[in-house]
Amino acid sequence: MGSNHAYTSSYEARTNGQTERSHQVVNSLIAKCVNATHKDWDQYLGPIAFTYNASTHESTQQSPFFLLHGFQPRWDCDIQLGTAARVPYSSNDYANVLMKRLEMAHELARQHLQKNALRMKSWYDRRVRPTEFTAGQPVKILNLRLYPGTTSKWYQKFSDKGTISRRINDVTYEVRCDKWKPPLRIVHVDKILKLNDFHLLEADKEIQDIETLEPEIDSALTASNEQLEPNELQISSNQDQIDTEALVLSENQQNCHRISFHQI
Predict the structure, then answer these.
(1) pLDDT in tens, 241-263
(2) Which CATH architecture has domain 133-218?
């Protein structure tokens, strides 16, 4: 059949989009047939498989049944109402006609798939922000494991730390983490983040910087003191004047009290 075995990234359903899309369609069809207990789903797998294979797909503009067999299937209504008589062929002629029909159908399906892929890519690229990593770069890695007694809302999902080992393609990297067994894994680019480390200044460097800034600090303090001295003198003279006025006012109040007492 010419099929190849391909691998997909873990926790990244988009890398296996065709299979996931077919599963979505099958699940939606099963949901329309099963009863309330969901225990009779296996009874409808045959009719659902036939319906899925006989339906025209948007991406290929053909049905999977036609791409495999070279002719359209017959539904129940075709058997009841009857169909037009087929053209008789010999075995060799039918084989030639079938091969030409399949080749043409497959070529048209490839063209439609390519056009649909470009359309989906342009739609996806509108909201994507590409990120690139280099070998040896430290990164944070997504860890969806939830330990007992912890809350998912408070859990730091990018808790694992590792380094980029090598770049496989634009969206997958080989990452090394000492917590893993084995330590090397292939991770999708959406599951890793850049690790930004913030280093504090060393004590010796801080002391050296303070010593170099001491002359500037002393000169700034001296200039500020010189500017404050006249203001301090003015403030002290104003304070003395206020004290004198308060003393005179208190003496006047005492004299007033004495006068009123003598009058009584």
Answers:
(1) 555 555 555 555 555 444 433 44
(2) Roll (2.30)
Q: How far apart are CA 166 and CA 182, in angstroms?
A: 16
- 68's tokens: 């495999």
CA–centroid distance for 231 within its chain: 61
Q: Where are the domains of the chain?
A: 13-125, 133-218
pLDDT tens sequence across 176-229: 998 888 899 888 888 888 887 665 555 455 555 555 656 666 676 666 555 545
Identify residue 218 by its one-letter amino acid code: D
